[in-house]
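Second attempt. The first submission of Flagellar motor protein MotB had a stray character pasted in from the spreadsheet, which I only caught after the job came back as garbage. Lesson logged: always re-copy from the clean sequence file. Corrected sequence (343 aa) follows.
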Amino acid sequence: MENLGQHQNIVVRRVKKGKHEDHGGAWKVAMADFALAMMALFLVLWVINSSNEQEKAAISGYFQDPKAFEDGQRVPSKYVIDLGGSPSEADNIAISEVIDPEKILQAEEIENLADVIEYRRMMEMMSKINARINASPTLSPFKNQLLLDITTEGLQLQIVDQTKRPMFDPGSAQLKYYSEDILWELAPVLATLEHRLSITGHTDSSKAFGVREEDDVNWGLSSMRADAARRALMEAGVPKEQIAQVIGMGDTAPLKKDDPGNPVNRRISITLLNKHSDDSIRGRTGKGPEVEFINGETTDDAAQDARDPVINKAGSLLEELRQQRESQDNSYDNPPNRDEVFW
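This time the job returned cleanly.
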């Protein structure tokens, strides 16, 4: 066999051309989004072109704050102070005041809050007076006779009697010297407080045997003792304007109800009035009735006029009562007969 020698391998490369892959329907979604966007653009351009300036402002305001519009019309904010709500204020529209219960305290809550604040102030004043009592060489020996508590009327300070240390002599309204010293020590503290004072005198239930209830002297005695305490406080610096009332309770409000004759019931009570009690006392005062004169003048117009007021003219109530009093068959002078007495 013929030797052909070395030979070279021949490699044939064949390139196969494949078909393009199917792209699916993604292009349809993109085309739909583009068409929708173009439609929205044309719609906005048409609205802008066919609207006037007022309508354009309304459309702009709606997109800024949709809550500011109702039925296509701009409405004002329902709040007194607008903190970023509706952007405008409508003209010629009545605004009704609407209270939001979640944001505005009710009157009862405000009143309760004021009571709590005042109670805390009363507690602070009690601590201040207690500190003054403990630090004072004059008051500290009488700590057992000084009672401090908070009542419905305010901060109450009571100076009570003891068997060996009474504030007054029996049946007297003259302060003992140590009782006067107590009031003089308390006066500078009370004078610095803005609360007005109610000074009340109390007695025990002891009275002379056989005395009628109408002749009970405890009423007058308690009133005079309260006034003696008022006088001592004013002499020590408490101004007159701070005194709200001075009253005598007699033996009607004993400190020990089960033992009305106990010496501790004889006491002077000084109350720093809270706002409710002070307003109640101030409410007792009022403008007196004007006296009407026959010619139509009032007491302000004719303060120096000495003529009789209209209440003395014929037909008035006073004149009618005077005629009844002067009649022969009046019930004032004629005593009842025997049958009427034993009826």
